[in-house]
Write a structure and sequence with these properties.
heterodimer, A: 305 residues, mainly alpha, 2 domains, disordered N terminus, B: alpha/beta, Rossmann fold, 5-stranded antiparallel beta sheet, 12 helices, 11 strands, globular
Chain lengths: 305, 281
């Protein structure tokens, strides 16, 4: 049943893409938290003093590094991580990312919190691997499911790869504002329709998140999640939240479309403009070093060096 | 000259709902008009026709003397700006400045002209300094002003606002109202404002149009409209609070004669002072 997950390494890459989405959501939730905290602290602030979650944190060299270089480094490192064949080597990028996050003065609490979402998925994927193989090492009582030696080894490897890839992407979005990232993607000639859609998704995550909170609170206020409510009923209520969000998203999409059309949008040109600056030699050198380091790690993993 | 005129305008949605029927509405250029009506009266449907977002099922809409049709929509949308009820529907760009620039960019203006318009619109709406903020980090009032700036940057002659004061605190609401009055006075813009807020209407409206069940019940100056209290109440609306007070004083306490009731605090103050003076004499 789960054989499709054994395909290697493309499955890891696909999982990583999924994690990227989780990471963006996680990052946004974190920014919202920071924003709320700052807003509470500045209740007397004037309009111009309002905090901006989007203001780049320019404190470290990692933040200042060209976003295109960071993107190339991250993608190379992700591909490298999912191609590793030994789990002990996959731990290296995880540790390096934590060190770099500390160097960039990122909130470690936030960093690990964002890693929680992909970790949940990594655990599910790893657990599934346990039941695939030929050499039985144990059997789960009552269920009669066999756990295999190859499965355990592969589960650890998959878990480490996924966590490594997620750590790399986590670090990337920690030190790069979303707008800058999209600007760099425009430089890579990613079609504007993809960038526009991503930008709109990013803009509306917070709006949808607010709507989710409102619907959830409305359910809570009418005892939707109290102890007396059964688990199935609660799951049903969660489902209703999801369904309502879907309907509201369609509704909002229509309104946003109307708002665009009312200001002369015809769909023939790009929604947003993306700016790029000249890449500095120092940044290019750093990028080359990182790529070489990834190649070295891969060669070491294969036992070539 | 008529800024907007509708002739026997009707609109039926695909599900068969008749939202508006035989609407004959007009507003003179440079005037402020409030469209009042209960929920589901057809206010938003009517407004969306003025910008060409909806096309009539029957009848026609004229904007500055030109009939709205599919061929001249670009021109119409430049002349008639529409500010949506929920600013989050309208502010979709990553920064305030980019959102304000969205309309002018669609008009294919030069970079310098776009920049000049964006700066001007931000200045008029008092949003200077917030141009690089993400719309999601703005307060309710700032979002509303940013929505207005986005429309202003297209240099329209008519601005339509759907419930511009909804979900705003009194101070912010008053600030937005002041901005709208300023736009009308200084730039000569025609404002068409759909609202429920009957207390604010006498402050800005030269005319009021009452819409109910998809039809115009009455249209005229505020004094004339609010003098028909029974009719106003029959469509689930009410008189402004200050007018209601004077109505009670008249009916219950026979305090005044058959004069028209004041609609604003300023008018009420003058009348009270007058009554006090008369009492002294």
């Amino acid at each position: 049943m789960f054989e499709w997950l054994q395909g290697d390494p493309v499955n890891g890459m696909l999982m990583t893409l999924g994690f990227f989405i989780f990471l963006i959501i996680g990052r946004n939730l974190k920014l919202r938290q920071i924003n709320k905290r700052e807003k509470n602290a500045q209740t007397q602030a004037t309009d111009h003093d309002l905090p901006s979650a989007d203001a780049p944190k320019t404190g470290s060299a990692l933040h200042r590094l060209d976003a295109r270089v960071k993107f190339i480094c991250a993608i190379t490192a992700v591909f490298g991580a999912v191609a590793l064949t030994r789990s002990e080597y996959a731990v290296i990028p995880i540790i390096v990312c934590v060190v770099l996050a500390v160097y960039a003065h990122a909130s470690l609490k936030g960093y690990f919190k964002r890693l929680l979402y992909p970790t949940y998925v990594a655990i599910v994927v790893a657990v599934v691997q346990l039941f695939v193989g030929t050499h039985v090492v144990a059997t789960i009582p009552y269920l009669g499911w066999n756990i295999y030696m190859e499965g355990i080894t592969f589960a650890i490897l998959i878990f480490a790869r996924v966590l490594a890839a997620a750590s790399i992407l986590n670090l990337l979005i920690t030190v790069t504002p979303m707008e800058t990232l999209l600007d760099s993607l425009a430089w890579f000639r990613v079609p504007s329709v993809i960038l526009d859609t991503t930008m709109l998704m990013y803009r509306y995550i917070s709006v949808v998140s607010d709507e989710r909170a409102r619907i959830y609170k409305a359910q809570q206020s009418r005892c939707g999640y109290t102890k007396s409510v059964s688990v199935f009923r609660k799951l049903g209520n969660y489902g209703t939240v999801g369904g309502m969000l879907l309907v509201k998203s369609f509704d909002r999409a229509l309104k946003v479309g109307d708002a665009m059309v009312s200001r002369g949008y015809t769909g023939t040109s790009s929604l947003f403009s993306y700016t790029t600056k000249k890449m500095e030699k120092k940044d290019i050198a750093i990028g080359v070093l990182v790529v070489l380091a990834v190649v070295a790690l891969l060669l070491a993993d294969l036992g070539i060096i | 000259m008529k800024a907007i005129e509708t002739i026997n305008l009707s609109h039926t949605y695909p599900d068969g709902t008749k939202a508006i029927e035989n609407i004959n509405f007009s507003v003179e250029k440079g005037k402020n008009i409030a469209i009042l009506g209960p929920n589901g009266a057809g206010k938003s449907t009517l407004l969306h026709h003025f910008n060409g977002l909806l096309m009539p099922t029957s009848g026609k809409v004229n904007v500055l003397g030109k009939e709205v049709n599919k061929q001249n929509l670009d021109e119409i949308r430049q002349k008639v700006g529409l500010v949506f009820q929920d600013p989050d529907d309208q502010l979709f760009a990553r920064t305030v400045a980019l959102d304000v620039a969205f309309g002018p960019t669609n008009l294919k203006l030069s970079k310098a002209e776009i920049e000049q318009r964006v700066n001007w619109a931000l200045e008029v709406t008092d949003l200077k300094g917030l141009e690089n903020k993400s719309p999601s980090n703005l307060s309710g009032g700032q979002k509303r002003r940013a929505s207005i700036a986005g429309v202003l940057a297209m240099k329209p002659e008519i601005i339509i606002l759907d419930e511009p004061m909804s979900n705003l605190d009194p101070k912010t609401s008053s600030k937005v109202l002041k901005l709208l009055m300023q736009l009308n006075k200084e730039l000569g813009l025609t404002l068409i404002i759909a609202t429920h807020d009957v207390d604010l209407v006498p402050l800005f409206a030269d005319e009021i149009c009452i819409l109910n069940k998809g039809q115009i019940l009455m249209q005229g100056p505020p004094q004339e409209i609010f003098s028909q209290a029974d009719l106003i109440r029959s469509v689930d609306l009410r008189l402004p609070r200050i007018t209601h007070l004077f109505e009670i004083l008249n009916k219950e306490d026979s305090l005044r004669g058959d004069k028209q009731y004041p609609l604003t605090i300023g008018e009420a103050r003058r009348e009270i002072l007058e009554l006090m003076e008369n009492k002294k004499e």
